[in-house]
Structure to design on (271 residues):
């Protein structure tokens, strides 16, 4: 069956560390959309941070943000789905992280709330040249208890991220969705939130069957959509866990792996 919907992770898939889109990737996405095939972005980024890339690529389908907690149209701004975190659990998670001296960000309406400015903010901001709105909120746990956030993100050294993910998973035991989105980042959302769940819902709303969906990613937070899609592909720079779950492995982002996939499985496919 020909592909009708293609979901692309952003960081490490469509864009490299320089946050630029490879010309081959841009051209391939344009060629795919010219054939009437839907392309969406599926990212942990907030909507405002994903929007410039959606506009650059002329994406016309709703995009998946916040690890799947928000699906919003890049042209109209219409929200198709939004799942905020349970307020009490968000507050408990913030306290757990702050008590462990971990830097945490709470996202409310695309605004980044932090308890205090710390050096960990700097590596995070390198991913956001568009300018993230940062608000220092000393009583961060009380804020998220009053206004449930869409997502929490914590920043730490890779070994600390791994440790905290294990600890938080044990602490919340499925009551929150907890994933690693980068070597330095761990993220928490409402239970059952994932890119895979959001992609399945988006495909259903479009009348696109599962076998006509392709998904490409590079990090553990992409596994849910890679395993759900009819064809799930891992970037060459993906983690071993992603490689193990994908149908095939592409060239890395530095070699325009997305363009390779679109040419092979869509544009030049004769089956």
């Amino acid at each position: 069956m020909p592909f009708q919907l293609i979901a692309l992770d952003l960081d490490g898939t469509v864009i490299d560390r320089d946050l630029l889109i490879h010309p081959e990737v841009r051209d391939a996405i344009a060629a795919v959309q010219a054939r009437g095939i839907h392309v969406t972005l599926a990212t942990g980024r907030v909507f405002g941070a994903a929007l410039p890339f959606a506009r650059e690529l002329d994406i016309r389908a709703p995009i998946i943000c916040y690890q799947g907690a928000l699906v919003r149209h890049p042209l109209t701004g219409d929200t198709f789905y939004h799942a905020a975190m349970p307020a009490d659990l968000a507050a408990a998670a913030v306290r757990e992280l702050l008590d462990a001296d971990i830097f945490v960000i709470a996202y409310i309406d695309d605004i980044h709330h932090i308890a205090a400015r710390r050096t960990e903010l700097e590596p995070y901001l390198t991913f956001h040249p568009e300018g993230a709105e940062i608000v220092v909120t000393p009583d961060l746990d009380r804020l998220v208890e009053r206004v449930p956030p869409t997502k929490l993100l914590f920043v730490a050294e890779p070994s600390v991220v791994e440790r905290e993910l294990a600890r938080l998973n044990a602490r919340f035991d499925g009551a929150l969705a907890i994933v690693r989105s980068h070597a330095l980042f761990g993220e928490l959302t409402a239970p059952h939130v994932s890119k895979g769940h959001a992609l399945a819902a988006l495909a259903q709303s479009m009348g696109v069957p599962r076998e006509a969906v392709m998904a490409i990613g590079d990090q553990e937070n992409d596994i849910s959509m890679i395993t759900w899609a009819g064809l799930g592909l891992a970037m060459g720079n993906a983690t071993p866990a992603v490689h193990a779950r994908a149908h095939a492995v592409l060239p890395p982002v530095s070699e325009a792996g997305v363009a390779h996939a679109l040419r092979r499985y869509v544009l030049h496919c004769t089956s």
User: Anything to note?
Assistant: The first strand starts at residue 5 and ends at 8. The two ends are 8 Å apart (CA to CA). The chain has two domains: 5-82+193-267, 87-189.
